[in-house]
Amino acid sequence: MLKPLLIEIGVEELPAVPLLKELKNIKKKYAGILEENSLLTEFEFYYTPRRLVIYHNEFKTAQEDSIEEFFGAPMAVAYKDGVATPAANGFAKKCGVELSEITKGEKGGKEVLYYKKDVKGQQSSELLSGIITKWIKSLEFGKSMRWGNSSESFIRPVRWVNVMLDDALVPVKLFNVESSKTTFVHRIANFDAVAVANIKEYFKVLKDGGVTLLSTDRRDKILNDFKNLESQNNVTIEIDDDLLDEVTAITENPTALLGSFDQDFLRLPPEVIITSMKEHQRYFPVFKDAKLINKFCVVSNALTDDFSKVIEGNEKVLRPRLADGLFFYDNDLKNGLSTKGLEKVAFFKGLGTVADKISREVKIANILFDTYKINASKTDLNRAVELAKADLMSEMVYEFTELQGLMGGYYALAAGENETVATAITEQYLPDGEDSDLPSTPLSAIVAMSLKLDTLLALFS
Asked: Which residue ranges in the chain fall short of pLDDT 50?
């Protein structure tokens, strides 16, 4: 017989990145455990920041009856002169029956000891507790935590468990939490547990309570909000797929909103503003006529008709972030681009300092320059390699390490270096991934190759 099955594991807010990294394995692991128990049927997996949900439209209420076969030692070994040997007696004991119930069978062209027994399938309700526990404990999110008096750990504390097979509650105990026919909706809608009589009602309760269960629906809602904001304000919102996945994972009722920041912060290089917004606040940058403007897009999880306070709050949070960036930037411009101090920064044990690495890269760059005979200035080449790591001493790169090289290019132009040198500094780490851009000039390519060749050869040495 087939009946619908719902499994909901309620947790405190899940961090998005570990959840998304494990996402591709969650369904596979659950399916594997079902297969081990001969209960595999089609299912869906849903998640929000507060719940992990499995739903079977049709689930087996019991395992199918089966036949279990046992093969033992060859008959010539099991009996000597008609008398049972320890091999025969041991086989009977293993099968849990008297020796008289053991028969002969054939395996590999030989007569062997054989026993067959009928195995009655267990009820699913008796197996689900073990299946769910094994599945949850198989999930690998990286760091885990303990809470209360429990000696077990999970990525976040488990607060409620709801397992229903059709309309009946299945008794499950997970992390000392016993299953009940309750769930939790959006906190703004209702802070307390909400009773659900059956699986059909469960989905309605979530919807009415401000929870969009399907991540695809949440993602589509965000993208649709983006389109509306773009159309209403004549702007373009830059969509970063990884960031979109992240905000989809941390919201149950997403609404995209447009906020703004002080025009003066646009003095900063665009990459600084974008990095600050994305990495620290999970905001999407906004452009007009292909230029970054003093607006941002935030995806709110609030359940309200008036988002003015939400927008105001996010604007207040962003301001000190950008103010820090502007402070670092102005200080770095004042101090200028210098390699002073790099002789005290270790590159790698046994390979000297970053200053030593620069010296090696200069030699490699000159060999490459002479080998490929590129149409460029060797003076520019040497200047670019010598200044390439200078921004490691800047306050901005200390705060935003992912901007190294890029900030060096900006600071080089501000210090009066020519555009060829600045471009080579900016592009020194390219390509930095499978789909990355390549250096745009032969001179930039030599600077980038010198860095990579020194790193590889030095580390192998």
From this structure: none
